[in-house]
Amino acid sequence: MSDLNEVQPVQPVSRWSDAFKKMATSQVLTSILAIVVALVLGAILIAAADGDVQRSWGYLFSRPGDFFSALGGSVGSAYSALFQGAVFNISSSYTVGQFFAPLTKTIAYSVPLIFAGLALGMGFRAGLFNIGAQGQIILGATLCGYLGFTLNLPAGIHLVICLLGAFIGGALWGFIPGILKAKTGANEVIVTIMLNSIAIFLLGWLLTLQAFRSPGSNMPVSPRMAPTAQFPHFFGTTIDLGFVLAILAAILVWWIMERSTLGFRIRAVGENPDAARTAGMNVSMSYVWVMIIAGGLAGLAATSQLLSSPAQQLNIDIASTFGFDAITVALLGRSKPLGTVLAGLLFGGLRAGGYLMQSSTGTPIDIILVLQSVIVLLIAAPPLVRAIFRLPDPERERKAEARAHARAAKKEVAAS
Amino acid sequence: MKKIAASVVLLTAAALALAGCADAPQTNDSFLACMISDQGGFDDKSFNQSGHEGLLKAESELGVTTKASESQNATDFAPNLEAMQAQNCNLTITVGYLLKEATEAQALVTPDAHFAIIDDNQIVLPNVKPLVFKTSDASFLAGYLAAAYSTTGTVATFGGIAIPSVTIFMDGFVDGVARYNEDNGADVKVLGWDKDKQDGVFTGNFEDQSKGQNTTKNFIDQGADVIMPVAGPVGNGAAAAAKEAGNVAIIWVDADGYETAPQYKDLFLTSVIKEIGASVFDTVKEAQAGNFSSDPYIGTLANGGVGIAPLHDFESKVPQEVQDKIEELKADIASGALKVTSPSDPQ
Predict the structure, then answer these.
(1) Do B18 and A356 touch (CB under 8 A)?
(2) Is the Cβ of A310 closer than 8 Å to some Cβ of chain B?
(3) Domain boundaries, given as residue ranges, for chain A
(4) Both B176 and B314 in a single domain?
(5) CATH number, residue B124
(6) Closest Cα in chain A, distance from residue B12 (Å)
(7) Does the predicted TM-score (pTM) go above 0.90?
(8) Is B344 domain-assigned?
(9) Does the distance separating the beta carbons of A79 and B19 come in below 8 Å?
(10) Going by C-beta distance under 8 Å and a sequence separation of 6 or more, which residues neighbour residue A311?
(11) Which of A245, A321, B140, B183 would be B340's cystine partner, CB 3.0–4.6 Å?
(12) Which of B27, B32, B73 should we substitute to test contact with A (largest number of A Cβ atoms within 10 Å)?
């Protein structure tokens, strides 16, 4: 039987073609191609919305050159503005700082998305579809903000207290659906959506109170955060401690999920809760822990807004749409920490570049939302991407390979 | 496999080609006027739209170059202002009181650039011009008209957010109704705003039309038959509720709703107009000629900066003597014989 171990691959495959096959069936490639398809679709929309393109379309056949130059012009200038707003500014390269200023903004915008994306990714891997990041961010912001503008503490301690506040606020809002799921089986999707609404109205109501109101203002905004509760900046850029914390959080999440017993339990519960229960794991408690940690991480997303300088104020829009964008980020990042960081940077870049694109070329900002949505749509349907690019189906390849192996093994057995 | 490699190469090439044909940044020798909306967007059928129309008019008539950016929420204000400033705008107009903080911050960072802000006059900087309106003048007339038109003896108003540029409408409206009651010994009630306490009904934002619809339904249930929503696009929700109820009239604000929201035109008794477009146009014109000043522009009934829209379809439903009385009041306010006051009046 010893020669069974020496079973050669059925067909000798060259190393390159093997590498190609691996690449073609990898999830990373699907993600990248999804982004490419989104950019192409976005280009079509940008062109369709452009006045020059519409005009030259009218006389396409008499002078096609006009149409194509208008097409190239509108799409090219929009995407080049998007790029220059997100990565580096080619036109104003006076100093290294200005050259990379857009990149530092991208990084700054990515911080809340990374935090909230990590939070949602953890839930997804435990089989929990947590839509509640928005509410968890708002609660984190509320507590962090309140501690930030009322307390009077030395610089470092104040910052830590605010960070703790953000974590606890978010964790509390995550704990509720977690415990409801664990004890009563309440569907976390519905509970978290409802808690999002409760959070926004809770903050809205708090901002009507004197305790949360900026003195002398009739606007629903809080006083400014104390200077002691602000992230230090690096090298005079918009990058602050928040980004470092986000990266540390990503590493921590990786460690929890891949190296700790808790992470093993979470993944087991996510793969198959019944099997995990049979194996003696406490499924309910796993849900509760995931939601507490995820809620806390989402709560920390608020800190990048509140603790940045110049001094910020707590307002009803503090969570922007981060909680919902983060769902996309987590999906694109395949719920893995590294993927989430990269996806967060991409979406941060789309946000940063979107402002410049809109202001310099007048391209409607909604294009950014279309790009994000198409990316997610394609990520959610890998066969669609494979069909567009005629990529092999990894499942089928694997099955075919398994069949071939089985055949070969059978032959070996028969021969011996 | 070759196919894949080929398509990857092709796509990369296409991407590079697209990036390659981007225009080099233009040198701006003409005057560049820029505008940033609040959450309502430039299609809000209300004050963002009016402002944007003024900007477009300046583009076509004054030959200035224009750029405009929409904000989707408050976190967009500062980045939008910054991105606009990177375009080297000569004048940047921010639409709305909500952009006050962001405008002030940007104006301090770029003291050489000029700014104008609509509906706020609290920024005191040499490079910021406030464009404000004594809207109470015009909404007084609308309040009088509403009281005269109402058959149930109850009218109502509500706001988006309790900020001066909103409550000033409601103050004038309440005073107009009070004047009608005084003149005619009537007792028309106003729901939704207490001028003395400066407290009333607000939907909490300028976006959520369903809240406008619910608020309006509540008012209708309490017997109101003329309603003035002062909440930008949220007013569309009010119009939807009025349409459903029938026999309820709406008073639109900022622009003439008969033209900007034609799907509801048969509901509009009148509109309280702020000539935001005209103020934007004039400001651009001044700045282009090199005469920018930080003196506030104050739109009044006298200078035509505010007014009420024609009655359109309601022309025949409002008695002639009421229409005459409105004209009389209008002349009195314009001449200063009649003073309409509000705590939110621009100084």
Answers:
(1) no
(2) yes
(3) 110-337
(4) yes
(5) 3.40.50.2300
(6) 10
(7) no
(8) no
(9) yes
(10) A224, A225, A226, A227, A230
(11) B140
(12) B73
